[in-house]
Amino acid sequence: MRVFNLLDDIPQSPKGRVVQYQLASCSSSGAANYRAAQRSRSRAEFIHKLSIALEEIDESNFWIELLIDTRMIAPQKVTDLLNEGNELFAILLASRNTARRNTKRKIDPQKPFPPPSPPV
Questions:
Q1: Is the pLDDT of residue 114 over 90?
Q2: pTM
Q3: CB under 8 Å to 68, separation ≥6 — which residues?
Q4: Is 12 exposed, middle or buried (0-12, 13-18, 19+ CB in 10 A)?
Q5: Does residue 40 lie within any of the structural domains?
Q6: CA–CA gap between residue 103 and residue 96 (Å, rounded)
Q7: Of the chain's two ends, which shows fewer C-beta atoms within 10 Å, N or C?
Q8: In the Cβ-directed half-sphere of 38, how many Cα atoms lie within 13 Å?
Q9: 46: domain CATH number?
Q10: Is 120 among the domain residues?
């Protein structure tokens, strides 16, 4: 929601409109793919949707950084938003890595922990 509020603060110049469009597109896509991951029908689909969400979050941060670099937006106006994007990226990356690791181990989601080994 905060990204969409930021769109109104971007200058209405040709460059600004390009960034507005790109930022609106990738930020909404990231959210939509995260939601799709939560509703996935398989672990492979979950991993795929998280991967797309990660790309879109990274692209969103790129456009926000470009706003700063081109002086269209003051850094202090978007610092929290960039930090939030980095935190979301780290969380989703960890989740994707865990899902990949569990796929390799073929862990049954109903039984996430293997039985303890007998004492030696």
A1: no
A2: 0.82
A3: 74, 75, 78
A4: exposed
A5: yes
A6: 10
A7: C
A8: 7
A9: 1.20.1440.60
A10: no
Please indicate, yes or no, if residue 111 is contained in any of the structural domains: no
Mean pLDDT of the chain: 91
Give the 3-state secondary structure of 11-38: CCCHHHHHHHHHHHHHHHHHHHHHHHHH
Whole domain around residue 96: which residue ranges? 2-105
Q: Please write the tens of the pLDDT for every residue from 53-94.
A: 999 999 999 999 999 999 999 999 999 999 999 999 999 999
Residue 92 belongs to a domain: yes
Write the CA distances from 53 to 11, 47, 75, 119, integer angstroms.
Answer: 27, 10, 24, 44
Q: Which two tokens stand for residue 11?
A: 């200058």
